Amino acid sequence: MNAAQPASLRRRILYATPEMADFVKTGGLGEVSAALPRALRAHYDVRVLIPGYREVRAAFPEIPVVARLDGLAGIPPCDLGLVEAADGLRIYVLLSPDLYERDGTPYGDAGGDFSDNDLRFARLSLAAADLARGADPDWAADLLHLHDWQAALAPAFLAWRGARLPTVLTIHNLAYQGLFPRDAMHRLGVPDAAFQVDGCEFYGQLSFLKAGIFYASHVTTVSETYAREIQTPEMGCGLDGLLRVRAGQGRLAGILNGIDESWDPRTDPHLALPFEVDDWKGKRANAEAVRRAFGLALSRGPLFAIVSRLVHQKGIDLSLQAAEQIVAEGGQLVVIGQGEARFEDGLRGLGRRHPEAVGVHVGFEEARARQMFAGSDFLLMPSRFEPCGLAQMYAQRFGSLPIVRRTGGLADTVEDGVTGFTFSDPSPAGLGGAVRRALDTFGQKKRLNAMRRRAMAADFGWDRAAENYATLYTRAIGNSLALRWRAA
Known about the structure:
488 residues, alpha/beta, Rossmann fold, six-stranded parallel sheet
């Protein structure tokens, strides 16, 4: 990437996202929304827009208001705050307590999704469009980068108002589309003419994500393989036809996510003992600490880990069956995550049957997860689909070899027999064969350590992704300027 430009010449990029790891995250989206803007700060004037959740308000008890945003139809007006992170990154905060200051996740509570999520995230999308049109008198975006369905109405709001501004929509998981009943469109200010196949209609429902895919200047996904997969009926979630059209226009691309420098076993403060390549005694020290933390018997056998949401997509049912094979072969398994009750209960039952070999923690703790990456020999990640995945990158950085299905970002980041083990068929036999190969490799220390070295040396930093996004931004902004010139 070229050297940084003077601040006065840098293009202004607004990232609109429902999550940011600084405050709240449910998965990779929050990590990316925190890391990508920072990776591009030297080359652009970047700002992030997020809802004012309780976690954000707790981090910034006093938030200066820089603008008052108008409402639209049933979308309420709200104040717009501006804060600055410790490293100087500027963050816009939507100040609407009734919409955002709630218990639970950003999307729901124990009772399920919030019933007004259409209003909550239409408010986020509308705010992004307003910021592009000068809602803050001191700053206006040259390009909007929108993340997932929760911000995907922004390109549509711009189009419905006749505004020509380049927009990039990143799909982190096509399975989550923001679907709402048709009658929601009137309280969201969606024009009747937009409710059609070439618009935001999806099998009789209003789809935030389809609107974004249709109206955005460019669409990206978080790995090259996933960008190809979602153009197929099997993986396209009903949107494969539109995605093939966008790909044919040269407007769909896969850009692999990265991970930041905190994922370094030499410096991570959460580890029992820092270690580096070839310091396998240091890695064993972390394995022993993990075993103690989970109440397992001390062992010289292989230690497997699962760090995941406990849902069908992640192949937890397959992992449950593979766990019996692992235990029978003298291995151990530690699990951290939460999700579907059937999988939480199944894993707890597994732990009760094998108390010295299986440890389960339902929930999530960042420090414990990092210790598991550092201490484990193998990471189980047999996802049925995986847009990108970050856990397999974290694991490799810490010398834990991933066992993954060959799909999405897993196919793009794990080299079979070199940095991990891959399989194709999402079945007990498919995963079982890969586990068998991992167990055999554990008994071949020279090969095991060679694979660890290759995994730890893999480059998963943000530089390559930042370069690809910068190229895309340049293209999108250039095309937009050309359109404005022709219109004038």
